[in-house]
Write a structure and sequence with these properties.
Length: 282
């Protein structure tokens, strides 16, 4: 009937009990309409005391923190929130077709080629097996994954190879600088365990260590007192046990220091920071 659907700007002209708002953002997306309304930051929708908010959705794994944060905001505004918490019958019905509905579509379309494309591999496999069982309605069933090359020509369709697919990371501030997997691995390593820099001053003429090694760390918790002194002692013992020839080969001595220090830190802290020995020639 006329007037059933109104413009968002007209909501203020109606009593609250006469208005039902269809609003997006049930997964707690930061800039979604519901998330903004939950913190009084929406142009038209405002959550007031006594309002009922129904989240007709399932909680997608990984979104729990943002969803519950949004629900907390709604409770702070004294709204009655109905969501999937197990205290009431489910109010959400999946938008995905059931198996019988999928069979109905296949019987109506009778495809020459059937290629399931949505879901995890186990779901693709079951979908393909279901289609293959309907011999009178389906021609060829092809099961492919992301990256598989599907080729069509006058002879039909077939898988012909594979290409690399997946996320491509671009450095901040750039549109073209692709970050390689090794760099991503190092950055993840640094973020989780930090970095340790043992600094050794070596006289380039005599090959002797001039001062006690310095240990610098960033993003790595040294732990109990005496840990850094123990680390310096490990470096000194490595240097003392090395020949003059090894000390002259900075690549060799750095690797020996790194290996011994890694063993010590792992034993003391069960952590694996990035260790980068630095040799200063004086």
């Amino acid at each position: 009937p006329s007037g059933l659907i109104i413009h968002p700007g007209e909501m203020k002209n109606f009593p609250p009990e006469k208005v039902c708002v269809m609003i997006s953002g049930t997964q707690g997306e930061p800039m979604s309409a519901l998330s903004r309304a939950a913190v009084d930051n929406h142009k038209h929708a405002k959550i007031e005391k006594g309002d009922t908010v129904v989240l007709s959705s399932r909680i997608i794994p990984g979104n729990e923190k943002t969803i519950y944060r949004m629900i907390d905001h709604l409770f702070r505004r004294e709204a009655h929130v109905i969501y999937e918490d197990g205290s009431s019958p489910p109010i959400h019905v999946s938008g995905h077709a059931s198996q019988e509905e999928l069979k109905l579509i296949i019987n109506l379309v009778k495809p020459k080629y059937f290629i399931p494309i949505h879901g995890e591999y186990r779901q693709l496999k079951l979908h393909a097996e279901m289609a293959a069982s309907m011999r009178g309605s389906v021609g060829n069933v092809l099961l492919i994954e992301s990256g598989d090359i599907l080729e069509f020509d006058e002879l039909g369709a077939r898988k012909t190879g594979r290409v690399n697919v997946g996320r491509v990371c671009i450095d901040s501030g750039s549109r073209t600088d692709v970050v390689e997997d090794l760099v991503i691995k190092d950055r993840r390593h640094l973020s989780e365990d930090g970095i340790v820099l043992p600094i050794i001053a070596i006289n380039k003429l005599t090959g002797r260590v001039e001062t006690s090694p310095e240990i610098v760390s960033r993003g790595f918790a040294a732990g109990e007192d005496g840990f850094m002194d123990g680390a310096r002692q490990v470096v000194m013992q490595t240097l003392d046990a090395s020949s003059a020839e090894e000390k002259a080969d900075y690549g060799v001595i750095k690797e020996k220091i790194r290996a011994d220090l890694k063993r010590y830190i792992s034993k003391q802290t069960q952590r694996r920071p990035l260790i980068m020995p630095v040799i200063l020639e004086i």
